[in-house]
Amino acid sequence: MRVIAGTYKNVTGPVQELVVDVEYLDVRLKAGMALSHDAKEGYTSFCYLIEGTGDFDGLKLEKAQLILFTEAGSIAVKAIEDIQYIFVTGKQLSEPIAWGGPIVMNTQKELEIAFRELDEGTFIKKKRKTTGREVH
Q1: Residue 15 DSSP one-character state
Q2: pLDDT tens-digit profile of 45-97?
Q3: Which of 31, 27, 25 lies closest to 7 in space, CA to CA?
Q4: What is the largest CA-CA distance in the chain?
Q5: pLDDT score for 128
Q6: Residue 50: its H or E element
C-alpha cells in the first residue's frame, strides 16, 4: 500500500499542504485478502478499482468501477481476485461543484479558466517531485 496524501498507520504521504483533511491511498490486495477503511463523520469516501474484481462493502466491483460512500463507518474490502484500487476520503466542504471531465472547480467560470490554462500549459502552477511512501 502506498500513502499518497494524509496519514495511514503512522505513515504520512508526500502530498501535503492540502486545504482539506484527506487520505489518499493506493492499495493492492492479493485474492482472498481483506482490509477495512474508516470513514469519519462528515467525510465522503470512494474506492476506484484499477485492476481485478473485489467486494466493496457487499457490492462487487470490477475494473474501472467506482463506489461512493457518504456515511460514516467501516468500509470492508475483500479481493475476489488480485486487485489494485484507490481509496480516498476527505472532509466534506459543502461547496458548489462544477465538474468537467478530469477537472473539478466551484463554478462554471472557474472550469472554463482551468481548461483554458490546461490548453495554454499554465494549469500547473508549481511542479513538485512526489512519490508514494510504502506502508507495511
Answers
A1: B
A2: 999 999 999 999 999 999 999 999 988 889 999 999 999 999 999 998 888 88
A3: 25
A4: 47
A5: 56
A6: strand 43-51
Cell of 35: 482490509
Strands 2-5 and 22-29, sheet pairing: antiparallel
Query: How far apart are alpha carbons 51 and 82 in whole angstroms?
Result: 8
Mean pLDDT, the chain, rounded, equals: 89
Q: Is 133's pLDDT higher than 70?
A: no
Q: Which three cell numbers stand for residue 111?
A: 472550469
Asked if 75 and 88 touch (Cβ cutoff 8 Å), the reply is no
End-to-end distance of the chain based on CA atoms, in angstroms?
A: 7
CB-hemisphere CA count at 13 Å for 9?
A: 10
Q: How far apart are CA 39 and CA 82, in angstroms?
A: 24
* 112 conformational bin, left if phi > 0, alpha if psi -120 to 50, beta if neither: alpha
Instruction: Supply the pLDDT for residue 49.
Output: 97
Query: What is the distance between the alpha carbons of residues 62 and 76, in angstroms, rounded to a whole number?
Result: 16
